[in-house]
């Protein structure tokens, strides 16, 4: 028996391209655009959330499943303000505005299937503004369990960050900065994303480290917020900030942002411990999406035709766009299967169209060898240090021949309360799509066993069930 | 005829080992490395195989007879799910839900020992119930061991004779604690298998007697 050390799937070089079609009943011409959701537009199953826009028409939210759109109804009396994200269960979060609203007043909405539910404003009192019609509640992102991070602005100094668990507000995101060694200001806090462990990256207003000013909001810095633990400021230079694109945290507690680079902006990646300069030549670069493998999507050079690349550990792999796509911009998403959803410009017969394109890694599928192996599972234990449930799973080659590596153990039908941590990727070629897998590079000889130590995030401490497949050899999983 | 008789008994010994309704283990752990090093807690987790209704409420673990050496229990127990009791009167964990946990502080002495009775009903869902034991430090994290989740031992109820694994401190860990001694003190047979168990025990006794005479 050998132990199995997971190996992450590499970056892909070739893609098949799908242009999401305009839903029936809406003219399919150059005046119609399809804009991906701003934070996480594509889930691991390849479902895409996007907004159909057209002059004179309120934005129409929709979800495309295998390229087929399903419209999401906006509650009566409201219009769509922003579409944010879709999770693996196909739950979509957005922001709506009453048609009689004042200014930017708006609040979150969640679609479970095609049923919308409006999330109330965070209930904390605000003496300086009691007019609820002016409140702005902004959802940022939704995790696999359906927990939503967001913020509510009622007035200056009346801002709260929060987590909504689907039924109630469970966590108030707060931070008290120190100035001169003593607590001095309660900072405003802008959540930028939430991962499956309910960890949040946020921009905090803190005392200016250069001038020493203690005015609230005079300076901001990125920080990691883990429920039940002190806020942890990222060890980045004072001028580094998170960006406003994409879900800003993955399950490895990684994030990305920008820093001044001459008169332009540079991109940095936070790998959970340190920041890495993406080291892209000027004029400018920006990460716009990230997955749970630590892979990110990078745009280099705005204006003209920005180069799109995937990026991992400092290595970037340029993507060649297929005709009729001329460019891809933000918003964009990158799922664990390596699929990309981006805001694309198309040129067809001299006419430009703005659509959402989905790029799926292409190539032959790896072989399903499930019938050649036996799989046995151990019990679970919650590791208090990591917060993850661990489980040992052993795969034995019962065939009379060696099975060529990489050996990938696939976990199907994992419930929404649980997430496989430290995955190597998710299936895109062998159905069902979007199932996480863990891979080892070596072959598995006849009669040989490998044991995998699984880690699951399960903040609800509820049951973890799944079925297994084993996929082996070269090819897309 | 005598040869057939011997073969029959050998078969009983080797092939028809009885199932145990419950097994009692004696656990002993050298905790001298923790003496005077701050506050610690004992942590028992009893996690159901799946949390599905068909898998729940089929196993129970009881821990008692605690001996802390020169140490003692402290504080009050923190209970989750199907956990009840404390380190003075005894602890019971039942798989009433997926996650069941008992935690209580203790002041370490040179050793820690206790008895553990575990019922042995494998879950029909295919993923076994598992009891695991760890020591938590003052931050609530496990004292590091070589176990997959830093446990000192686990009892996996994968059959009527559960799999027991035990681990010592991880290399370079803050505390050097050897793997515990986990021994079977007694076994309670299934109610319907008393006759078979008696035959098995007689066969074992007869076999050992013949072996000694040779």
Task: Describe, in plain words, how this protein is organized in 3D.
The complex is a heterodimer of chains A (477) and B (214). Chain A is mostly beta strands. Chain A has no helices and 40 strands. In chain A, strands 1, 33, 34, 36 and 39 form a 5-stranded mixed β-sheet that branches. A 5-stranded antiparallel β-sheet of chain A has the order 32-40-35-38-37, with no helix packed on it. In chain A, strands 2-31-30-29 form a 4-stranded antiparallel β-sheet, with no helix packed on it. With 214 residues, chain B is α+β, with helices and mostly antiparallel strands. In chain B, strand 5 (83-86) and strand 6 form a beta hairpin. The radius of gyration of chain B is 20 Å and the shape is globular. The two termini of chain B are 21 Å apart. Classes of the chains: A mainly beta (477), B alpha+beta (214). The interface between A and B is medium-sized, with 18 and 34 residues.
- What is the residue-mean pLDDT of chain A, rounded to a whole number? 90
| Gyration radius over CA of chain A | 23 Å
User: How far from one another are the termini of chain A?
Assistant: 24 Å
Give the tally of β-strands of chain B: 12
Percentage of residues in strands of chain B: 35-45%
What are the segments of chain A in which pLDDT stays under 50 over at least 5 consecutive residues?
1-7
Strand content of chain A: over 45%
**Assembly state of the chains shown:** heterodimer
Main sheet overview of chain A: 5 strands, mixed
> What's the alpha carbon Rg of chain B, rounded to whole Å?
20 Å
Helix vs. strand class of chain B: alpha+beta
Low-confidence stretches of chain B: 1-16, 208-214
Number of helix segments of chain A? 0
Beginning-to-end CA distance, first to last residue of chain B: 21 Å
Number of helices of chain B: 2
Mean pLDDT across every amino acid position of chain B:
86
- Cross-sheet strand order for the largest sheet of chain B: 5-6-3-8-1-12
**Apparent shape of chain B:** globular
């Amino acid at each position: 028996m050998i132990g199995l050390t997971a190996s992450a799937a590499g970056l892909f070089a070739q893609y098949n391209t799908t242009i999401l079609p305009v839903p029936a009943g809406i003219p399919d011409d150059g005046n119609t655009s399809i804009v991906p959701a701003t934070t996480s537009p594509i889930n691991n199953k390849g479902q895409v959330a996007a907004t159909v826009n057209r002059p004179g028409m309120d934005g129409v939210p929709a979800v495309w499943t295998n390229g087929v759109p399903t419209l999401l109804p906006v509650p009566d009396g409201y219009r769509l303000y922003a579409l944010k994200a879709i999770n693996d269960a196909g739950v979509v979060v957005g922001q709506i505005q009453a048609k009689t609203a004042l200014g930017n007043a708006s609040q979150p909405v969640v679609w479970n299937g095609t049923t919308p539910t409006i999330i109330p404003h965070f209930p904390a009192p605000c003496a300086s503004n009691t007019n609820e019609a002016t409140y702005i509640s902004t959802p940022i992102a939704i995790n696999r369990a359906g927990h939503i991070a967001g913020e509510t602005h009622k007035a200056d100094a009346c801002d709260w960050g929060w987590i909504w668990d689907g039924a109630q507000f469970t966590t108030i995101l707060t931070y008290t900065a120190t100035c001169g060694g003593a607590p001095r200001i309660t900072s405003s806090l802008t959540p930028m994303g939430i991962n499956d462990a309910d960890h949040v990256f946020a921009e905090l207003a803190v005392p200016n480290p250069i001038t020493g000013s203690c005015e609230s909001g005079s300076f901001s810095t990125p920080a990691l917020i883990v429920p039940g633990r002190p806020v942890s400021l990222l060890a980045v230079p004072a001028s580094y900030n998170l960006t406003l694109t994409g879900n800003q945290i993955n399950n490895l507690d990684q994030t990305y942002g920008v820093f001044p680079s001459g008169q332009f902006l540079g991109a940095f990646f936070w790998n959970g411990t340190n920041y890495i300069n993406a080291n892209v030549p000027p004029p400018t670069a920006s990460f716009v999406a990230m997955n749970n493998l630590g892979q990110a999507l990078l745009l280099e050079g705005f204006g003209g035709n920005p180069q799109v690349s995937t990026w991992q550990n400092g290595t970037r792999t340029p993507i060649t766009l297929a005709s009729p796509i001329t460019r891809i911009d933000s918003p964009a998403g990158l799922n664990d299967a390596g699929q990309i959803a981006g805001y694309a410009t198309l040129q067809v017969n001299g006419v430009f169209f703005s659509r959402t394109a989905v790029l799926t890694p292409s190539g032959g599928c790896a072989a399903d060898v499930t019938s050649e192996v036996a799989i046995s599972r151990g019990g679970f234990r919650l590791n208090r240090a990591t917060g993850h449930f661990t489980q040992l799973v052993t795969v034995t080659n019962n065939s009379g021949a060696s099975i060529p590596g990489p050996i990938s153990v696939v976990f199907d039908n994992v419930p929404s309360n649980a997430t496989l941590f430290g995955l190597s990727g998710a299936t895109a070629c062998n159905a069902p799509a979007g199932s996480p897998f863990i891979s080892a590079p070596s072959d598995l000889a006849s009669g040989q066993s490998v044991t995998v130590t699984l880690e699951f995030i399960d903040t609800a401490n509820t049951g973890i069930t799944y079925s297994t497949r084993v996929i082996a050899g070269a090819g897309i999983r | 005829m005598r040869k057939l008789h011997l073969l029959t008994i050998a078969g009983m010994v080797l092939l028809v080992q009885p199932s145990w309704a419950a097994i009692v283990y004696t656990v002993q752990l050298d905790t001298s490395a923790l003496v005077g090093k701050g506050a610690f807690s004992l942590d028992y987790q009893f996690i159901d195989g799946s949390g599905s209704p068909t898998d729940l409420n089929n196993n129970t673990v009881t821990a008692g007879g605690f001996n802390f050496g020169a140490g003692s229990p402290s504080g009050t127990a923190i209970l989750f799910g199907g956990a009840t009791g404390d380190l003075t009167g005894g602890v019971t964990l039942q798989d009433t839900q997926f996650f069941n946990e008992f935690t209580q502080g203790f002041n370490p002495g040179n050793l820690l020992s206790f008895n553990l009775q575990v019922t042995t009903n494998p879950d029909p869902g295919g993923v076994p119930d598992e009891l695991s034991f760890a020591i938590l430090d003052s931050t609530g994290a496990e004292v590091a061991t070589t176990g997959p989740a830093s446990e000192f031992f686990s009892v996996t109820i994968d059959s009527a004779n559960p799999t027991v694994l035990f681990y010592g401190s991880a290399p370079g860990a803050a505390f050097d604690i050897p793997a515990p001694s986990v021994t079977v003190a007694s076994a309670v047979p299934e109610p319907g298998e008393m006759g078979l168990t008696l035959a098995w025990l007689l066969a074992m006794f007869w076999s050992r007697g013949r072996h000694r005479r040779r």
